[in-house]
Design a protein that fits this description.
By secondary structure, this protein is an all-alpha fold. It is 75% helix and 0% strand. It is globular.
């Protein structure tokens, strides 16, 4: 259990998760990919986002940021890249099973990659 907390820069975990969350707001905004994403899922962007989904997104980003910090603390960059690749491929395949359009899958996959990159850069900076 100690390997999950030893040498982890917790401020980087929190800031990385927050930056990735706000990057998602920009990513899914109508100015970037939001219109195409919403159209592919028949979602009304004018409606309030579901609170439970947003809370789960925040929790997931925190856990992902923690994973990034653990791998950074142990110098396991290749482990991080392998985990991130698996995460993106599994997410993409899950969305394929759900019948999401290729555009939706690529937009979501792109965001997942962006979130990991933001977290890596945050850990490197802090």
């Amino acid at each position: 259990m100690v390997e999950l907390t030893q040498n982890v820069t917790w401020i980087a975990v929190i800031i990385g998760a927050l930056l990735a969350f706000f990057a998602g707001w920009a990513w899914y905004s109508p100015k970037l990919f939001g219109k195409r994403w919403a159209q592919g899922l028949a979602i009304d962007l004018a409606a309030a986002p579901p609170v439970a989904a947003m809370m789960l997104q925040g929790l997931g980003l925190f856990l992902l940021s923690w994973f990034v910090a653990v791998t950074a603390a142990s110098g396991a960059l290749m482990t991080l890249l392998l985990g991130a690749l698996a995460f993106v491929v599994l997410g993409y395949s899950g969305e394929s099973f759900a019948g999401h359009t290729p555009a939706v899958r690529l937009i979501n996959g792109g965001y997942w990659v962006l979130a990991v990159v933001v977290m890596i850069l945050t850990n490197a900076a802090l």
